[in-house]
Write a structure and sequence with these properties.
homodimer; alpha/beta; seven-stranded mixed sheet; 5 helices; globular
């Protein structure tokens, strides 16, 4: 899967500068690193973004713990050919990141992850996207 | 429709304080005011949040201009009985707001709006939610 950061709404550079002023990256920077790692299927980096007892909730499932979440994310990534991050915003404890995924068989899907970050690790990831096309192919 | 702000992730009070230090509310404050007004079907306030040439994009439609966007939002709100804002984050030009809607016939839907704000008005609203249940009832 290739990764391409999207347009002027994606400002990783600024975030990196902010990181240097604090002990750890802020939630928006972690959100970008997390989705970027997921997009290139770098599961080691994805796992490093997550807290041990992370809770992942999507329209289809809810899983708990690093291993289960990484498995779920990897399964989902298998059909994704490209990810374009459209926007990342956050505060000192949470972030939301919007991106578009080109998929095999389902066209382009738009998604948002809402992340809660504690001590530099993601403790909660709520994924919102339109499952309509997906469920037509694989009803759940 | 009743409106209830959700839990500790919703910090309208802090945002109002920030507003007093600047000429106009920041995008996160506008996002909260916009969804709150929509939830109580206060269309005059919804309209005041919007720029003249606002673009609204959802999984089902794309409409342009205040009147068309307000009409579309009002139509969608007709089936919603309660809105709970879960999180609002933003920077100086954009915001994302996540909320849950209790609906007549479709259960609870989770949604995120990504807003771009210029000069205190929303110029772009991209809505992401799972249309699966909706499309089963009314295919588009």
């Amino acid at each position: 899967m290739s990764f391409r950061s999207g347009a002027d709404q994606y400002w990783w550079g600024d975030r990196v500068e902010e990181d240097q002023m604090t002990d750890q990256p802020d939630p928006a920077a972690i959100a970008a690193a997390y989705i970027e790692a997921w997009a290139r299927r770098d599961l080691a980096t994805v796992a490093r973004c997550l807290a041990e007892k992370v809770v992942f909730e999507s329209p289809r499932t809810r899983v708990v713990g690093i291993d289960a979440v990484v498995d779920e994310l990897d399964r989902f990534a298998a059909t994704v050919t490209e990810v374009r991050i459209r926007s990342v915003v956050g505060d000192d404890r949470s972030a939301m990141i919007m991106y578009e995924m080109d998929t095999v068989g389902l066209g382009t899907l738009r998604a948002v992850d809402h992340l809660v970050v504690e001590a530099g690790r993601i403790t909660s990831d709520i994924l919102v996207f339109d499952t309509y096309k997906l469920r037509l192919l694989a009803p759940l």
